[in-house]
C-alpha cells in the first residue's frame, strides 16, 4: 500500500478563511514576533497597547464578589449538566432585569439568549441574518470580527463611515445610499471600539429612525455598556426598540474585566414583537440548537454576580479608565506625528491619525507598528485592521504607569524617525 505521506491529499480548505484573515490576533502575532526579545541592550518590559485585555493589571482586577459567585455556583452541584440551548432560566431572568434598569420598559427573560462571550453572539447573528443575497451595514472603523464572520457566512458587507470631525457619529446620509432591499441590518458599537466615543441619545434616535425608514434591524454591540466616563451618559439602543427592532449584544468580558470567562448574551429589545412575527426568532432558536453553549456554572453564577457586584467596583473602573484616557490623549498631543480628533469618553481604545509626511522611511501604519515593536518593545494596532489605513488604534486600558512609559517610547520613536528639515 502507498505510504501515507506519499499520497496526495489535495486539501483545499474553506476559502473564506483566507478572506477573513485580517484579524486583530493575526496582526498582533506578527507584531509580537518582531519584538527583539534577545537584544541585550533592551531590558525594558514589552508593553502592549494593541490588545484589549486589562485583566492582568491589579487596578483592573475583577470584584471578589463575582469570583465568589462562580465558586458558589460550582460548589452547589446544580450546574454540572448541559444547559438549555437558550440559556439557564435564572441567568436569563437576571440579565433581563439588569438591562431593564436602564430602559423605560421591561424586558422579559424570553428576550435573552446566552452565548460564549460577545464573540459568539456576533457569530450567531451574522449566521442567522445571512440569507442568500443579503447584505449588512458595518461601521468603519469597526470591530473586524463582524467582517470576518460575514465573509464566512457569505453575507455581503457595506461600510458606512463614522465621522471623526463629528465625535465619530454615524454618517446617516451615507446609510440611506448604501441600503437596498437586500439590506438586513446595521451594526453600531456603543460605547465605541475602536474610537472610544459615546453616542448621544439624540443621535441614537436618529439612527433608529433611519433604520426604521429603511426597514432594517439595528444590532447594538454594547459589550462596553455603562463604560462611559465623559459628558455623554451611556444610553442603551434598546430604548428605541419600539421605533425599530434592536438586537443588543453584550457580555461580562469588558464590564467585569473577565474576558476569559466567555459569557455573553443576545437580547432582543422589541416591545412590538416584530422579530417574532418576521420569523427571526425561530431562525435564531434553530441556530442555537446546533451551537455550543456557555458553561452552565457560569450561567448559574450570573444572578449572584449581578446582585452582589457593588456600584463602587464600576465607579473605580470608570475612574481608572477616565484617568488613563486623559493621560493617553495628553501624551498623544505631544507626539508630532499623531493627532487624536476626539478625546475618548468611553470604552477602552482610541483612534489616532498618523502623519507619515513627518516621518522618514516609514511606509504605512503596519510598517510603523512593526518598527515600533522592534525598536521600542511597544505594540499598537495598525488602523487598517479596523478599517482605517494609516491610523493607529491605541488601547489605554492598562495600568497608568505602563501607559505613560509606552507613550514616552512612541514619542522617542517619532523623534528618531522624524524627517529632517532641509534648510537652504
Ligand atoms: C471585546 C469585544 C467583543 C468580544 O467580546 P467577548 O465577550 O470577549 O467575546 C465584541 N465586540 C466588541 C466591540 C469588543 O470590543
Task: Describe how the helices and strands are arranged.
Blueprint: H1 16-19, H2 24-34, E1 47-49, H3 64-75, H4 89-100, E2 112-115, H5 117-129, E3 135-140, H6 145-152, E4 156-163, E5 169-170, H7 172-178, E6 183-189, H8 201-214, E7 217-221, E8 246-251, E9 264-269, H9 274-277, H10 280-289, H11 296-308, H12 311-333, E10 338-339, E11 349-354, H13 365-376, E12 378-382, E13 391-395, H14 400-416
Parallel strand pairs: 1-12, 3-4, 3-6, 6-7, 7-8
Antiparallel strand pairs: 2-9, 4-5, 8-9, 10-11, 11-13, 12-13
The structure holds pyridoxal-5'-phosphate (PLP).
Pyridoxal-5'-phosphate is lined by residues 117-119, 143, 189, 193, 221, 223, 251, 253-254, 259, 264.
Structure description:
The longest helix is centred in the C-terminal third of the chain and has 23 residues, at 311-333. The radius of gyration is 23 Å and the shape is globular. α2 packs across α13 (365-376) and α4 (89-100) packs parallel to α11 (296-308). It is of the alpha/beta class and 424 residues long. It has two domains: 20-60 and 312-415, Alpha-Beta Complex (Aspartate Aminotransferase, domain 1); 64-308, Type I PLP-dependent aspartate aminotransferase-like (Major domain) (Aspartate Aminotransferase, domain 2). Helices cover 38% and strands 15% of the residues. It has an eight-stranded mixed β-sheet with strand order 2-9-8-7-6-3-4-5. The structure holds pyridoxal-5'-phosphate. Pyridoxal-5'-phosphate is lined by residues 117-119, 143, 189, 193, 221, 223, 251, 253-254, 259, 264.
Amino acid at each position: 500500500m502507498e505510504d501515507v505521506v506519499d499520497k496526495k491529499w489535495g486539501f483545499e480548505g474553506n476559502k473564506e478563511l483566507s478572506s477573513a484573515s485580517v484579524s486583530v490576533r493575526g496582526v498582533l502575532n506578527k507584531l509580537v514576533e518582531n519584538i527583539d526579545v534577545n537584544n541585550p541592550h533592551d531590558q525594558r518590559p514589552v508593553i502592549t497597547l494593541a490588545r484589549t485585555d486589562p485583566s492582568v493589571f491589579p487596578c483592573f482586577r475583577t470584584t471578589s464578589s463575582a469570583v465568589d459567585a462562580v465558586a458558589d455556583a460550582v460548589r452547589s452541584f446544580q450546574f454540572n449538566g448541559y444547559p438549555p440551548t437558550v440559556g439557564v432560566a435564572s441567568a436569563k431572568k437576571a440579565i433581563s432585569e439588569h438591562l431593564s434598569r436602564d430602559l423605560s420598559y421591561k424586558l422579559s427573560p424570553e428576550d435573552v439568549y446566552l452565548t460564549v462571550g460577545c464573540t459568539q453572539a456576533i457569530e450567531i447573528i451574522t449566521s442567522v441574518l445571512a440569507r442568500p443575497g443579503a447584505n449588512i451595514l458595518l461601521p468603519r472603523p469597526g470591530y473586524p470580527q463582524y467582517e470576518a464572520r460575514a465573509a464566512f457566512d457569505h453575507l455581503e458587507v457595506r461600510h458606512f463611515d463614522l465621522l471623526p470631525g463629528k465625535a465619530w457619529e454615524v454618517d446617516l446620509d451615507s446609510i440611506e445610499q448604501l441600503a437596498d432591499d437586500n439590506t438586513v441590518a446595521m451594526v453600531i458599537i456603543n460605547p465605541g471600539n475602536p474610537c472610544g466615543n459615546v453616542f448621544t441619545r439624540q443621535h441614537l434616535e436618529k439612527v433608529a429612525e433611519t433604520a426604521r425608514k429603511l426597514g432594517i434591524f439595528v444590532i447594538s454591540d454594547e459589550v462596553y455598556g455603562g463604560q462611559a466616563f465623559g459628558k455623554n451618559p451611556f444610553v442603551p439602543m434598546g430604548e428605541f426598540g419600539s421605533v425599530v427592532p434592536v438586537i443588543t449584544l453584550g457580555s461580562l468580558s469588558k464590564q467585569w474585566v473577565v474576558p476569559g470567562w466567555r459569557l455573553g448574551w443576545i437580547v432582543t429589545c422589541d416591545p412590538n414583537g416584530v422579530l417574532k412575527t418576521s420569523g427571526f426568532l425561530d431562525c435564531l432558536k434553530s441556530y442555537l440548537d446546533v451551537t455550543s453553549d456557555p458553561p452552565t456554572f457560569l450561567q448559574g453564577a450570573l444572578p449572584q454576580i449581578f446582585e452582589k457586584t457593588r456600584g463602587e467596583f464600576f465607579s473605580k473602573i470608570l475612574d481608572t479608565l477616565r484617568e488613563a484616557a486623559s493621560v493617553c490623549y495628553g501624551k498623544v498631543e505631544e507626539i508630532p506625528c499623531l493627532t487624536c480628533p476626539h478625546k475618548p469618553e468611553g470604552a477602552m481604545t482610541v483612534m489616532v491619525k498618523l502623519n507619515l509626511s513627518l516621518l522618514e522611511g516609514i511606509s504605512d501604519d503596519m510598517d510603523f507598528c512593526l518598527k515600533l515593536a522592534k525598536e521600542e518593545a511597544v505594540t499598537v494596532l495598525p488602523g487598517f485592521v479596523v478599517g482605517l489605513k494609516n491610523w493607529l488604534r491605541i488601547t489605554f486600558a492598562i495600568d497608568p504607569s505602563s501607559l505613560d512609559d509606552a507613550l514616552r517610547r512612541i514619542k522617542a520613536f517619532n523623534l528618531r524617525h522624524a524627517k529632517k528639515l532641509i534648510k537652504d
